[in-house]
Design brief:
By secondary structure, the protein is α/β, with parallel strands linked by helices. The protein has 3 domains: about 10-135, Response regulator (Rossmann fold, 3-Layer(aba) Sandwich); about 145-325, P-loop containing nucleotide triphosphate hydrolases (Rossmann fold), CATH 3.40.50.300; about 330-470, no CATH class. Helices cover about 45% and strands about 10% of the residues. It has helices at about 20-30, 45-50, 70-80, 95-100, 115-145, 160-175, 190-200, 220-225, 245, 260-275, 300-305, 310-315, 335-350, 360-365, 370-385, 395-400, 430-445, 450-455, 460-470, and strands at about 10-15, 35-40, 55-60, 85-90, 105-110, 180-185, 210, 225-230, 240, 250-255, 275, 285, 290-295, 320-325. The strands form 4 sheets. A 5-stranded parallel β-sheet has the order 2-1-3-4-5, sandwiched between helices. The chain is elongated and about 95 Å long. The N and C termini lie far apart (about 65 Å).
Length: about 475
């Protein structure tokens, strides 16, 4: 099957009027980008076509010789319930429409006067078919715990996290869908890597074009996406193609969409709904043959509740959504990533890869990483650049963990005395309770950094880790 055909499963048009079929097929391609169409002018052949290949949607005329639409409809619904049927009629007959809906039709349209509503109905039906297929595929993977079908598409992403593996399975399931993909997560969690993986899954033959929307006013946003004709505005001395043209047949990655102005949000909404655009200064409407991936580190739910992000746009981009976990929620990946970055940094400096310090993993596991993977990479690169004599020592990293405990420097373990504290306490707490309080206070003051907290308490980081898990430290 030609991968460029849309939708993946063909639409079957059943009507005895050959001229109307040809005209409507052209309209589907021009208006909706639908190129995978089968025409049937003899209703007696319809069931045979349905048996011979998977059909995504059926458009069925009511009035035909041999077998009429009302007779054929229940047969299609019974034998091929996975293919929704849209009824077409030359007359607006309410009683007939009600009867067809009772027999299982997805929708009913008067083909001579309701062209726009018919096209909208076809879009809805195709979206429903895609969502059904995705749900079946996801259910199948959950039930069988299948391995990834195309693991090579995720080769850039270093992980052994079950959360990330679940995201990979989800991306494989939605790859055939034409609905936009929304990627959310904190800064530095790898949203662009996920966009690149989706591109390799969904449209590897086409380009991946990335646009950062942060700081773009409406005019620049429009010009960047849609391009312009010569003379469209002052300074437009020649025609320029926009990013939509450059991404033709591929994937357009729009990053930081939470920063878009209200006017730009309206234009993005129309683009996603209609899949059409006009270059600035042009009267010619063009089709956008691209897949859309959108990303932001903002909380869009809060933004739309506050009126800073359009609700209709929010719901339009949520058909498929990936929420990337922060690094603190995938700590099993920290050592893997650190080893990778150490080797990568050494190669960049033209050096041999130095071995890891023995206690580095403990330090890294105790760090909260508010900057996520980007912070870890910067930390490792800085430490490797400080390497002397080919050895990556504890001192190379020590200064990077120092700020969290800096304000308590010189007051660690048994070095501190509290001559004024105990006399003010009339009743001493039990030893265990006092210990729990000290641990909680150390974690609060170091903002969750176990390494810095352990230094404050004068114990080892593993001992603090066991204490936090309520295990005896003996």
């Amino acid at each position: 099957m030609n991968e460029n055909l849309y939708p993946a499963s063909p639409i079957l048009l059943i009507d005895d009027e050959k001229q109307w079929l040809n005209s409507f097929a052209i309209s589907l391609e021009y208006d909706e980008g639908i190129t995978n169409v089968i025409q049937c002018t003899d209703s007696r052949e319809a069931l045979g076509i349905l048996e011979s290949r998977p059909i995504g949607l059926v458009l069925l005329d009511l009035t035909m010789p041999h077998i009429g639409g009302e007779e054929l409809l229940p047969q299609i619904v019974e034998t091929h319930p996975e293919a929704p049927v849209i009824i077409l009629s030359g007359l607006n007959q309410l009683e007939t429409a009600v009867q067809c809906m009772k027999l299982g039709a997805f929708d009913y349209f008067v083909k001579t006067t309701e062209r726009e509503r018919l096209l909208a109905g076809i879009r809805r039906a195709l979206q429903m078919v895609e969502l059904r297929r995705e749900n079946r595929h996801l259910g199948k993977m959950i039930d069988k715990r299948e391995a990834l079908e195309r693991p090579e598409c995720f080769s850039e992403i270093i992980t052994q996290s079950p959360k990330m593996q679940a995201i990979f399975h989800y991306l494989e399931a939605i790859a055939p869908s034409t609905e936009p993909l929304l990627i959310t997560g904190e800064s530095g969690t790898g949203k662009e890597l996920i966009a690149r993986a989706y591109h390799r899954l969904a449209r590897p033959e086409g380009p991946l074009v990335a646009v950062n929307a942060a700081g773009l006013d409406d005019t620049v946003f429009s010009d960047t996406l849609f391009g312009h004709t010569r003379g469209a505005f002052t300074g437009a001395e020649r025609q320029r193609a926009g990013m939509l043209d450059q991404a033709e047949g591929g994937v357009l990655f729009l990053d930081e969409i939470g920063d878009l102005s209200p006017a730009s949000q309206v234009k993005l909404l129309r683009l996603l709904q209609e899949r059409e655009f006009q270059p600035l200064g042009s009267d010619h409407v063009r089709r956008a043959d691209v897949r859309f991936v959108l990303a932001t580190n903002l909380d869009l739910e809060s933004a739309q509740a506050q009126g800073r992000f359009r609700k209709d746009l929010y719901y339009r981009i949520c058909a498929h959504r990936v929420v990337l976990p922060p690094l603190r929620e995938r700590r099993e990946d920290i050592s893997l990533l650190a080893d990778c970055f150490i080797a990568e940094a050494a190669r960049g400096l033209g050096r041999k890869t130095p071995p890891r310090p023995a206690r580095l993993e403990d330090w890294l596991m105790g760090h909260p990483f508010p900057g996520n993977i980007r912070e870890l990479r910067a930390m490792v690169y800085d430490a490797v650049s400080r390497v002397a004599n080919g050895q990556l020592t504890e001192q190379s990293f020590l200064s990077l963990f120092k700020p969290a405990a800096e304000e308590f420097e010189g007051c660690t373990g048994g070095d501190c005395e509290y001559p004024e504290l105990l006399p003010r306490v009339s009743r001493l707490p039990h030893l265990k309770r006092a210990g729990d309080y000290l641990v909680d206070e150390a974690m609060r003051r170091t903002r969750g950094n176990q390494t810095a907290a352990a230094r404050l308490l004068g114990i080892s980081q593993p001992a603090l880790h066991r204490r936090l898990k309520k295990e005896p430290t003996s």
